[in-house]
Task: inverse folding
C-alpha cells in the first residue's frame, strides 16, 4: 500500500450527510471534535458546508498528546474563524467541564431570544460530529456521565441517533454513521497514519516512519536526540534518521545492515505511546 494512494478507502458519506442535513433544524449548535495533534487532518471536509450558518464549537481533544504551544495557536486560529473553542483530554476528563459554559456563551444571543419569547430554561441541543478515533465517544461519555459501552461504529453496523442529556437544559445529538476525513489528500492520510487512526496493516510502515522522523527532525529535533541519542542535522532525510536510530538501538541484520522495518515499528509505537513527548503534527500557518 502506497501512502499516496489512499483512494481505496470507502467513502460512504451519504448516510451521515443525510442525517446532518435532516437534524440541523433540530439543533442550536454544532460541536466538532478534532484531534489536537492534527486539527486539520482530523476534520471532515464536508462539515463546514453541511452545517453552514450554525454556531460552531470546536473541541480540540487529545491535548495531553499535543504540543501545548501549538494547541494555543490552533485554538486562536479556530476562534479567528468565529468558532468557540475548548481544549480537552477526554480520557482523563481534563477541560470537559468547560463544555456547557462554552455552549451557553456561544449561544448567548439565542438564549436571550428564547427568553424574550418566554422560553426560560429551554433545552439547548448540540449535534456532535467527529471522524473515527478523535475521542468522540469518550468525550460524550465524560461530558454527560453516560456509562454505556461505545456504540458500534463500523461500516455496515447501523445504529440510530441518540439524544444524550448533559444537564436539565443541554442535550447532545450523537450522530450515527462514519464521517470520513479527507483521504484524497495524501498528507491527511499520512498524518492519520502517524496517530494510528489508519490501521498499520494498510500502510507502508517504513515510509510512514521515515516521514514522521523527517517531521520530528524538522520541528522537534531535541526530542529525537534525547530519545534515540542521535544528532539531527537541519534538513536531514527521515530515512537517514530512521537508520541512525536503528543503528543506535543495535537493530542490525546479518551483513550489518540496519533493520529499518523494526525501527519503524518502534518509532511509531513510541510516538503513539507518548514516549517521545507531546507533538503537534500540522501547523495552522499551513492552512492560512
Ligand atoms: P471515537 O468515538 O472518536 O472513535 O473514539 P473513542 O472515544 O473510542 O476513543 C478512541 C481512543 O482514544 C480510546 O482509546 C480513548 O480512550 C482514547 N482517547 C479519547 N480521548 C482521548 C484524549 O483526550 N487523550 C488520550 N490520550 N486518549 C484519548 P482506546 O485505545 O480505544 O482505549 P483505552 O486506551 O482508553 O483503553
Result:
Amino acid at each position: 500500500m502506497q501512502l499516496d494512494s489512499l483512494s481505496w478507502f470507502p467513502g460512504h458519506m451519504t448516510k451521515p450527510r443525510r442525517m446532518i442535513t435532516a437534524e440541523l433544524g433540530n439543533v442550536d449548535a454544532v460541536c466538532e471534535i478534532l484531534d489536537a495533534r492534527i486539527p486539520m487532518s482530523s476534520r471532515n471536509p464536508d462539515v463546514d458546508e453541511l452545517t453552514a450558518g450554525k454556531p460552531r464549537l470546536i473541541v480540540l481533544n487529545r491535548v495531553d498528546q499535543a504540543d501545548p504551544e501549538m494547541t494555543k495557536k490552533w485554538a486562536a486560529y479556530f476562534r479567528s474563524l468565529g468558532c468557540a473553542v475548548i481544549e480537552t483530554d477526554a480520557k482523563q476528563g481534563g477541560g470537559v467541564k468547560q463544555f456547557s459554559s462554552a455552549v451557553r456563551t456561544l449561544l448567548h444571543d439565542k438564549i436571550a431570544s428564547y427568553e424574550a419569547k418566554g422560553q426560560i430554561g429551554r433545552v439547548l441541543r448540540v449535534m456532535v460530529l467527529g471522524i473515527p478515533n478523535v475521542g468522540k465517544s469518550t468525550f460524550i461519555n465524560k461530558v454527560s456521565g453516560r456509562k454505556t459501552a461505545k456504540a458500534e461504529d463500523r461500516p455496515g453496523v447501523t445504529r440510530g441517533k441518540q439524544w444524550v442529556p448533559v444537564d436539565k437544559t443541554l442535550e447532545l445529538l450523537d450522530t450515527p454513521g462514519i464521517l470520513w476525513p479527507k483521504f484524497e489528500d495524501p498528507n491527511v492520510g499520512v498524518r492519520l497514519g502517524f496517530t494510528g487512526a489508519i490501521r498499520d496493516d494498510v500502510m507502508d510502515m517504513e515510509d510512514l516512519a521515515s516521514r514522521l522522523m523527517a517531521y520530528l527532525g524538522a520541528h522537534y529535533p531535541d526530542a529525537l536526540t534525547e530519545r534515540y541519542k542521535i544528532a539531527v542535522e537541519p534538513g536531514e532525510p527521515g530515512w537517514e534518521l530512521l537508520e541512525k536510530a536503528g543503528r543506535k538501538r543495535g537493530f542490525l541484520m546479518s551483513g550489518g545492515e540496519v533493520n529499518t522495518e523494526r525501527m519503524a515499528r518502534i518509532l511509531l509505537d513510541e510516538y503513539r505511546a507518548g514516549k517521545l513527548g507531546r507533538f503537534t503534527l500540522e501547523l495552522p500557518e499551513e492552512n492560512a
Observations:
- The chain is about 40% helix and 10% strand.
- The chain has a mean pLDDT of 90.
